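Person: Please work through this fold.
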Amino acid sequence: MNTYKAPVRDMSFALFDVIQAEALYAKLGIEAAQRDVMDAALEEAAKFNENVLAPLNGIGDREGCTFDKATGAVKTPTGFKEAYAQFVEGGWAGITARAELGGMDLPESFGVVMKEMIDAANLSWGNYPLLSHGATEALKHHGEPWQQEVFLKAIVEGRWTGTMCLTEPHCGSDLGLLKTRAEPIADGKYAITGTKIFITGGEHDFTDNIVHLVLARLPDAPAGTKGISLFIVPKMKVARDGTVGERNAARCGSIEHKMGIHGSVTCVMNFDGAEGYLIGQPNKGLAAMFTMMNTARLAVGIQGLGLIDRAFQNALRYSRDRLQMRALSGAKEPSKPADPIIVHADIRRMLLTSKALAEGGRLLSYHAATLVDVMERTSDEAERKQADDLLSFLTPIVKACLTEWSVECTYNSLQCFGGHGYVAEWGMEQLARDARITTIYEGTTQIQALDLLGRKVMQQQGVGLKQFLGMIQQFCEQNIGNAAVAEFIGPLATLAKEYADTTMAVGRKAAGNPEEIGAASVDYLFYSGYVALAYWWAKSVAVAEAGDYPADFKTAKRETARFYFQRLLPRTRLHKAGIEAGPASLLALDAALFDS
């Protein structure tokens, strides 16, 4: 009963009308990225996701993945392998990869639109190509030419998939503690020994070979994060000429039984002297791995977006059909025994929260993706640096806010169903369970918050923040006197100034007490996210009112923006209070007294 319809009209509006991506693509020389071509591709992508992936979502949740302890093999749920074959056959595996690698050479931001559809249709299935995309990025930026020829092309074509192998049983986010070893052997190869956990797609039945990118230490490596190197360790041994040999000593030891994303296999991977190749420079593996992680963090934010939208669609349909009581102001459909629940104010609050966060979050994340396009394709170094600075600032906001909002919105959408939402038949409880992991993997919300405030704002002197505030200021100045957005411009301009002042105040306090950063970081992150969406909602209304759009589309944008400014943006008051409260109340109670 749980279905998905790709919101192609709003996706196109966000990418092309508000963000103006077509002009950017032309400037960057992406010849294949004309809007008519891209809109047609969106329609085809929608068909695949609606008709192939979405029907498998519930099946994947019920069946999960199965593990053969004797062989270490993993079987994915019914239909998953066949859907991957269709995905590859349609050319979707390499849509953003360069043509010389076998890809379609489309912009990264178009890939993000496709990814939103995938994640809304079937989040578990989408994890498999997600990790392949991360491996592609690392190989593209750090691999030697022969490694790109042998490994990268195979992943782009979809013949092989990729993984990221970071976490170990004794260390999570503190990678400086990892113990996996890499011993040099003959012919420039290394023997990799160690155990990695929580490896998405570490074993499956989609492809014959899987390319693991593994963090490990060389024998003479310095301690901590400065002594980490990155290695290519394929499931099947692969020679430099691309010849595939025997099974490597890399095996799945078990799979995790999880709260959600049951169709996505999460493995314990054991490397017992597995043969691999160094990628990048010795002891510089963390920098290479972060190429994957930063891309993956944006991608996980998109997972949150997809879940918000799918949950909203199903809750909206149910709320229009479900009859329950009468509207407080009088019957709205007197010919029926009761009114549909969408007439009730609190149902509307929950639905509008999801709509506002989905459509605003779509603009936030698509804009971030266009910055990846600039970084990848511009020949202007100053422009590349500017895009990098802004993207670095926005990435933790996209990742953390969209995933946390997905938990809120899947909960709200389930709540619209009442008791029916709690049972598996309607598919809503699956979305709520699936959403929970998105706030954790690829860096928890707390890690994103520390990255934003501690590194991207304080350490980097707020270079990305200044750009973002400049965008807001320019928009407000350009729209002085624009009656269509007058109600939004004043609050937005005031909030932008407060944002700058609040940041400066935190910086001054942190100079005297570094605990201020940790105490303020999560509130600062959410404050940033709500300001960001205020900007994008005001801009959406400005574009919609100035364009040739249907009256109902304009009305929906304007009224949703009003709801956002009146009902969601005031959350910044709470977060500002949290920022200003400081660390005292958090640190005063001795740890030994927490259970007293």
The two ends are 48 Å apart (CA to CA). Residues 57 and 279 are 36 Å apart (CA to CA).
